Recover the amino acids of this structure.
């Protein structure tokens, strides 16, 4: 077996094993912490498709994370206040059903990614980073100034949304739900990278001219990647809001986008489990360091600096070596 | 009379004060190798880009298979059946040799919107890619990372990727560069046979290869074609001798 495969298996199993231990020790807070890492990992797995495979450094993925969060917040808010969301010639009610909320989160963030991607993918390099950042900030300020859904204060949802057959308020059951979703997306992303689309997208990152010369369009490849990427991050946003039972404009903030990039860089750009490793390390550091100092992020910054300077492939790259071209 | 497959009609392109292409007209007939030669800075690469895509001419038309492709993108021209190789290798360097060739086959099949099944397990695509690699003699390097290929091998891979497209015409920008004497000879033999599949517009500095292969030669100097003819006609042309071949005896 390849070293990266073993490492991936260890990283993958680390989460349920840690959750099971926390469950055995009756530490629900730790389970929630692990769930948080899994959701961050999911958001960054989404970004990794655009950033790692497609070479599109988006500093605006918080937009999709926030859209997913507000999809949950708005639907659940209307359900808990028994006020229809739209009440004119058609009536649309809110909902507390997770599958419906997820669907809405995925569709709305995919549509937003389609619009943002169609505009920003006409640029590249630093301009692309700046434009995606600008879109993210637009959503941030819009959320702050929109009083209907809490404005700056955000929205509280009193009871976690429901999933058929589960008690989602039980930390372990909610973790399992998140972990199953993360597993499914990771499985798909692993397939996607090897599929015809993945080969063409990665070739477009390496050499757009080459892709054009064989009659394929880099723009459309990147746009589709950006939409899938945004949709996955949007789904993570809905789960994150449900984890906290709270949404606020900070989900849209550029610091959020930056954190996703940090997860990927820490773990390994373009590696399937890079974002998982990065998110787990980040949440672990947050847990260990934040009681020691208010300025714990300084240490995270120092670690990031070390990774960028001395371990260019991130955690996965330094432990498993250079990526092996797919068979 | 047979129709030309590729017809470049009165192309002009200026970059500021520099007239890079100055009223170029040329044709590529089925089954022929038409070589384009000229000193450095004559505007060969600019002309190639107007033909294969990448640079839009100021005036003039490019016809391919009777269709006006002047306004089409590189991508659309490739789909129409124009196979191109670059002067400076343009490949996916992190991918394997076989993956680059599969990408070509994928482009030809147009089946890129598939998100689940591994492309390297697609027997039809891989078979086409492997066949193309075998034809240029790169089959032993199929699993090699492209970045690890020598300069000459990269040129061969460029040709192999163009082959997977099964194009109706080739536009090749210096395929012999970096091949060395024996490699150059093999490539010459290969291109000699290839013209029966699809005609080749060949930009090349290797004069032995050009004179051995070309049915017709056009000489480009300062953006203008100063002569077009067979190898013997070009050798004998006094304008060419002074403008391009200089005083040296090429006969």
């Amino acid at each position: 077996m390849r070293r990266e495969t073993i490492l991936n298996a260890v990283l993958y199993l680390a989460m349920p094993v840690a959750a099971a231990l926390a469950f055995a020790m009756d530490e629900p807070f730790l389970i929630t912490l692990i769930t948080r890492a899994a959701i961050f990992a999911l958001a960054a797995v989404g970004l990794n498709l655009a950033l790692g495979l497609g070479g599109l450094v988006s500093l605006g993925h918080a937009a999709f994370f926030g859209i997913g969060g507000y999809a949950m917040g708005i639907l659940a808010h209307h359900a808990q206040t028994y006020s229809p969301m739209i009440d004119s010639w058609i009536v649309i009610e809110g909902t507390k059903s997770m599958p419906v909320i997820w669907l809405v989160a995925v569709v709305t963030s995919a549509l937003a990614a389609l619009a943002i991607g169609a505009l920003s993918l006409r640029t590249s390099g630093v301009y692309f980073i700046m434009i995606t950042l600008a879109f993210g900030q637009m959503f941030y300020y819009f959320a702050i100034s929109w009083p209907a859904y809490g404005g700056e204060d955000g929205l509280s949802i009193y009871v976690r949304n429901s999933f058929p057959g589960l008690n989602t308020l039980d930390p372990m059951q909610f973790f399992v739900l998140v972990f199953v979703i993360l597993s499914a997306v990771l499985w798909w992303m692993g397939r996607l990278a090897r599929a015809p689309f993945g080969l063409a997208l990665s070739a477009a990152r390496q050499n757009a001219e080459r892709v054009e010369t064989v009659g394929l369009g880099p723009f459309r490849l990147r746009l589709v990647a950006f939409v899938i990427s945004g949709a996955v991050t949007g789904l993570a946003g809905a789960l994150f809001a449900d984890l906290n039972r709270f949404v606020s404009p900070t989900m849209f903030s550029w610091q959020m986008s930056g954190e996703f990039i940090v997860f990927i860089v820490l773990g390994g750009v373009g590696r399937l489990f890079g974002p998982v490793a990065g998110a787990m390390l980040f949440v672990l550091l947050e847990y260990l360091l934040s009681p020691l100092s208010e300025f714990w992020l300084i240490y995270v910054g120092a670690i990031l600096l070390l990774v960028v300077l001395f371990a260019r492939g991130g955690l996965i790259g330094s432990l498993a070596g250079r990526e092996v071209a797919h068979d | 009379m047979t129709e030309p497959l590729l017809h470049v009609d009165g192309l002009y392109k200026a970059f500021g004060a520099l007239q890079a292409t100055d009223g170029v007209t040329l044709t590529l007939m089925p089954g022929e190798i038409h070589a384009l030669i000229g000193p450095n800075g004559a505007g060969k690469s600019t002309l190639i880009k107007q033909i294969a895509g990448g640079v839009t001419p100021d005036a003039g038309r490019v016809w391919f298979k009777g269709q006006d492709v002047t306004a089409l993108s590189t991508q659309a021209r490739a789909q129409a059946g124009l196979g191109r190789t670059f002067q400076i290798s343009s490949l996916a360097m992190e991918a394997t040799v076989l993956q680059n060739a599969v990408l070509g086959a994928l482009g030809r099949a147009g089946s890129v919107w598939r998100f689940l099944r591994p492309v390297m397990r697609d027997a039809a695509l891989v078979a086409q890619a492997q066949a193309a690699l075998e034809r240029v003699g790169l089959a032993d390097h199929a699993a090699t990372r492209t970045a690890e290929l020598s300069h000459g091998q990269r040129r061969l891979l460029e040709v192999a990727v163009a082959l997977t497209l099964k194009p109706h015409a080739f536009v090749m920008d210096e395929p012999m560069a970096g091949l060395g004497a024996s490699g150059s000879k093999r490539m010459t033999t290969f291109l000699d046979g290839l013209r029966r599949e699809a005609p080749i517009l060949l930009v090349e500095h290797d004069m032995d290869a050009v004179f051995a292969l070309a049915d017709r030669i056009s000489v480009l100097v300062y953006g203008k074609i100063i002569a077009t003819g067979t190898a013997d006609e070009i050798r004998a042309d006094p304008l060419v001798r002074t403008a391009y071949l200089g005083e040296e005896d090429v006969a």
Observations:
- The radius of gyration of chain B is 18 Å.
- Chain B has nine helices and ten strands.
- The longest helix of chain B spans residues 180-194.
- The interface with chain A takes residues 52-54, 73-76, 78-79, 84, 86, 90-96, 99-100, 102-104, 106-108, 110-120, 122, 143, 145, 161, 164-165 of chain B (CB under 8 Å).
